[in-house]
Amino acid sequence: MRLLDTFSLAWGTLATQLRRTVLIGLAMSIGVGAVVVLTALGEGARGYVLNQFAGLGANLVIVIPGRAETTGAAPGVLSGQTTRDLTLKDADAVARLRWVSGVAPLNVGAAQITRGSLGREAVLLGSSASLLRIRHMRLGSGQFLPDGPSDQATPVCVLGDKIRTELFGNTNPIGSWVRIGERRFRVIGTLAAQGQQMGFNSDELVVIPVAAAQQLLNTPSLFRILIEARGRAAVPRVKADALALLKARHEGEEDVTVISQDAILATFDRLLTALTLAVGGIAAISLGVAGVLIMNVMLVSVAQRRAEIGLLKALGASAGNVRALFIAEAGIIASLGAAGGVALGLLASFVLGKIYPQLPILPPLWAIVAAVATAIFAGLLFAWLPARRAAKLDAVVSLARR
Amino acid sequence: MIELDKVSRTFQVGDQQVLALREVSLSVAAGEYIAIMGPSGSGKSTLLNLLGLLDRPSGGRYHLDGRDVTDLNEAESARVRREKIGFVFQSFHLVPRLNAAANVALPMLLAGVAPAERKQRVTQLLAEVGLSERADHLPSQLSGGQLQRVAIARAMSMHPALLLADEPTGNLDRATGREVMGVLEALNLAGAALIVITHDQDIGARARRRISMLDGRVITDA
Asked: I want to staple B170 with a disulfide (CB 3.0 to 4.6 A). Which of A183, A214, A375, B90 is the partner?
């Protein structure tokens, strides 16, 4: 029997029982749709988190004073006992390494910023000109910190968007003087409003040269050194080189921790992928349920069509032919159901994407392929029993019954 | 063409053994026209099912066209049915959702005949039974006689050498019945061996050879 004839005969049977066919197909569709939507959500969450990290710069290597044995935790959590300070000279030395395209030393503190009678507490960030590029910050107006020797405490500052509004309202702040702590700084630029980035609000920042920050905060040591590697591939080398260099500079003692986004990123990636798989797996159970439904309906169908099966056998259909017919029926239902499910899933993903625009909701290709394959596999698997029963029917007995 | 050698068939009904056929020996030449007669339960249908390879004998041997077909496996016997045997049933057994042409084409479909050839042969077969204009009709739109003629066209679609009819006129009125027998006899004249089970003495009388059965045995054969 030709394959095409098998399918057209099977389709003919399904078409005459259209309502039943559509209902089982729908069950399959819902299963496939659930897998597609849930994995799309999982992938959306993963994409969201990865994007947030990418916002920090994928080529970023961070040096933290102190030795921590833990890796992969968020940078803020790491706080080891430090014997030697991480200094500006260390940062300058790191900047001379190969494969390093930029270095931003970092000091963080809180300080009062005032202009006339207006004042508020702000997060003080001491850094260098490279910070703007390395941290993907955007300037609102004016210019960022000037290039120059890192130990030069030029009294200039760049204001975060919220600080700017609170101190200056709608007037142009560029060129005005503000007081930070005990010192006066000239405003040379403002940051564009960027909002929250991995728990770090750039709108409430005041950025000044790192040397000035060290004087203000009265500390010789750095809080972090941010290193930008030349490309993602260079990240491991830069990590190793920076560590070796700082070890040499600190009399052979490895008292700094060097981390990269990669480690954190990889952890989150693994975590969220596992989550997506788990959610998708749970949804896939519904495919099994749909498979059982197919089996059930087909068992009824075999019982109802005994005479037809007997007739086909009398006309020369082998058991294999009859089996193929029933399997083809299940295959058609499962395929149509899977196609409907993919459409359903894509539609639902689209709608969810509209509702949560910040999540990049797009069902991953592997999930669609896996869902469709599972649906068809389940359909065929569960059709096996009814098909076998049909194939085993005794032609004489089946024909005699009417 | 057919050689039955002491063929028996027993059925298990509950804990009772029922002997449906008792050592029936029979030989049929190609192109013969045989009527099998006898009361219900005499084993006629069992004999026909065995001849049509729908059933297996419990004892004895069955040779068809010189080949021992007693112990053929399922797929092989399906193949023999497809190529050598045509069935006509009392209750027609057409597939209700298929039109006349598609019903006629079924055996060719199962045999894997190419669609173009199938179409051509269906047209020819329907013309032979006088139903060319009814090709697109569903079984529900056809009369009893027409249904049986479609069934006959279907039985002949693979040009079988053996045509088995189990009370082909049982559900038809006399006039239609005679008409249907006419179609079958024409096919017999064209070369197919025809074996008909019937209760109808008139129809039995038309056959060149009559076999009467009783209690699973052939009692007269003339």
From this structure: B90
| Residue at which a domain ends, from A201, A224, A254 | A254
A388 interfaces chain B, CB cutoff of 8 Å: no
Give Cβ neighbours of residue A312 (< 8 Å, ≥ 6 apart). Answer: A321, A322, A325, B106, B110
Tokens standing for residue A308:
């037809």
Asked whether residue A79 is domain-assigned, the answer is no
Pick the CATH number of B32-56+78-221 from 3.40.50.300, 3.20.20.100, 1.10.10.60, 3.40.630.30: 3.40.50.300
The verdict on a CB contact (< 8 Å) between A9 and B109 is yes
**A5 touching chain B per CB within 8 A:** yes
ipTM: 0.92
The token duo for A15 is 């078409």
pLDDT in tens, A285-337: 888 888 888 899 899 989 988 989 999 999 999 999 999 999 999 999 999 99
Domains in chain A: how many in total?
Answer: 2
Q: Which of B13, B168, B78, B1 shows the shortest CA–CA distance to A391?
A: B78
* C-alpha–C-alpha distance, residues B113 and B159, integer Å: 13
- Contact of A321 with chain B, judged by CB distance below 8 Å, is answered with yes
Mark A45-61 as b/e (b = at least 16 C-beta within 10 Å): bbbebbeebeebbbbbb
Whether residue A322 sits in one domain with residue A242:
no
Is B87 in the A-facing interface, judged by CB distances under 8 Å?
yes
The Cα of A22 is separated from the nearest Cα of chain B by a number of Å equal to: 18
Contact yes or no for A316 and B81 at CB 8 A = yes
Cβ of B74 within 8 Å of Cβ of A317? The answer is: no
